[in-house]
Amino acid sequence: MVREESQKLFRKEALIHLTTPEQLNKAITITGSKSWLLLLTLTVTMVLVIVWSILGKINTRVEGDGIILSDIEGIYNAVAPKGAGEVERILVKPGDTVKAGQLVMTFNNLYLQNQIVVAQQALAELQQKNKEMSAEAKIGIANRHKDLITQNTILENIITQQNENLIHAQELLTIRQDAFKRGLITRQEVVSSWQQYYDIRKNIEDARKEISQNLINEKNYVESWADKLRSIDLKIKDKKEELDSLISQLKTGKNVYSPITGRVTNIQVKLGDMAKEGTPVLSLSPLDINLEVIAYVPINQGKKIKKGMITMVTPGTIKKEEYGSIIGYVDYVAPYPATSESMNAVLKNEDLVKKLIENPTMEIRVNLQKDPTTFSGFKWSSSEGPPQKITAGTMVEVSTIVRKQAPVTLIIPGLKKLFGSY
């Protein structure tokens, strides 16, 4: 019954086609030759990617900014001499090479000139006072000596007279003592003679003491004037030394000399400008015998940098795409963050410090690898470098390789994180 119903639902030809498959004697084509080539390419690519991910290296870099300086020190400043002064002459220009101690600028030093005038006036007053005191001392000593002679002459006369009186008193005393023994006079008369005798002797002693004291007083008077004159002589000597020092400072203080043998990089003043003592008036960099890079990198990344790491140094004056970078090696890593004071101590340039310390940084120093075959004298990452010299004072960008790792090590943590979330 069921079979009959199915035959009614489908045509007989269709049922025969289904039960008798066609083309069983033909081979099945799975892929064409182009597909095989594509598959092979993909396979090779995958193998290369896997090999590269295992054997290849990806560099992790820390970037920063810096400046090329001589390894002797940073940028040096010649400063205005002692006291305020007016720029009188400028004897050099930027780019000039100068020797240590070479005269580079002169000042009209008004401060020292005024100090010299004041010192000269003070010296003249002291010398005049010394002259007046010497004259006064001469007159005073002469008058005192004259008075001394007068007083002592009187005293000598008194002594002479008293000596005569003493002889008479002694004779009288002898007579009365004899008379007293014979009962001719009273004891009181003898005592009176003794008293007279001793009074005369005392008068003589007092006169002699007064003569001695007068001599001592004269000596003290002379010495007091000598002390006064010595004191003012010392003041005159000190003032002369001060004046000589000021004159010497004026001779040397009006001149500005180069503190180093180097190259003039900047002149901060012009003719007629006033400059205070110690103001930088001219900047110099040491000659480019040994150059190094002082660079500042972000503090959070700088801790990864170690001594000896490769650093690519790109001067701001050349095209990196064309000439590449100078190859260098980290020679020093500061243990503490950089401060404006520490940076200024190295760079000696406040404007540059302000530019480099916009964000927290730490200092590194990079030695540049030399190559005598290049025009610049340094080894470059590509080509022979630019046809120009690299000099101190050139701003640079630095890129330090802090880690080399296989690409797969970067992928695995991501995969772990991805699959670990399921």
From TrEMBL:
Signal peptide feature range: none
Name by which UniProt lists this protein: NHLM bacteriocin system secretion protein
Pfam families: BSH_RND
Entry's transmembrane regions: 36-55
Family: Belongs to the membrane fusion protein (MFP) (TC 8.A.1) family.
Coiled-coil parts of chain: 109-136
Nucleus in keyword set: no
Superkingdom of this protein's organism: Bacteria
UniProt keyword annotation of NAD present: no
Domain Multidrug resistance protein MdtA-like barrel-sandwich hybrid: 79-280
Organism: Legionella micdadei
Key words of the record: Coiled coil, Membrane, Transmembrane, Transmembrane helix
